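Question: does this match?
>
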Amino acid sequence: MYRYLILSLLFPVVTACSNISDLENRFSPNPELAEQQEDVTQSPLEIPNSFPDTIPQYSNSEVQEVSENLTNEKGLIRWSSSDSIGQISEFYQEQFNRNNWEISQPFNEENNTLIAQKDGLEVQLSFLSASNGNTDYSLRYQTLNGSTASNTEEKPTSSQTKNDNNTNLENVPQSLKSYVADVRQLGTVNLNNTDNKTVKESGIINRRTYARWLVETYNKFYDNNPAKQIRLGVETAKPAFSDVSSNDPDFAVIQGLAEAGIIPSPLTGNSSASLFRPDNPLTREDLVTWKVPLDMGKGLPQASIDNIKETWGFQDTTKIDTKAIQALYADFQNGEQSNVRRVFGYTTLFQPNKGVTLPEAAASLWYFGYQGDGLSAEDVLSINNE
């Protein structure tokens, strides 16, 4: 009897041990499954060979994203690092200074973007976030004014630049020659190069080219004042216009103008302006609508057709768009520095839909400012020479 009792007490223990062993076997890792998981693990992203080797790279970082169609002239790479924003920004500012980059916008508490240029290549270092112990940042780069990122490219001598600036000035109207000559010396316009053959042959500038001239010239005026500069759009931004994708060569400047509210777009509440039409001719109406807000440094004032009749006295006032009416009214208040006076001279017809010639477009960029507070291209050249 005692023997039976002892065996009955031990038996459940043995059974329980057996069950635990089975349970462990059920939940133990499957060697085959583990091998499969290792096989599907993604390899870390690598920096493409086309990424310019002149751009410094922070070693303690991992590539998170690489833009499509990245080349040595244009691209964006996003990184993540366990180091702080301060450590990363200090590294880049030191590297840029050591390697003779020109820092047009240093990193500080107010600006989370550092901008530097060298040999026609512009780099924007932007910090996206700093959380969970990691710092995410992006490096966006592009060549400016048709330059290349090659270190072997020779810069033109001052005499070459002077000769280039005087090329074809005989085709410029006498009244515009001095303006055009000054602006061309800034290196931001090229009267021999537009992006549409038809527009080039007719002597009329297209919208994309003027957008690029406008941004690059305006930013050149304020090289020493980054707070006034127009920020270029980034490739990861949602395009403001359905016909200007992030792959467009002028996306950065067109997107930048839209995001700054300079040109009408859905971002400014103009739902009918969903298309930019980059290769269409620039009209007189376009020119004043885009240029005058940069002269004023603020939004356009309210104005009516009667205001234009009382000031400019144009006979075709009723044909002018509302935004252009506002721009023209503000432009009249700018006195002798008015764009209409400088570019088109005395006229009783504005002809809002008439195409703007290349010399007219360049002359409009000779001065930025309002009611005596501004700079001319001549002023900028004098400052640079000093």
Notes: The mean pLDDT is 80. The longest strand covers residues 121-131. The chain is about 40% helix and 15% strand.
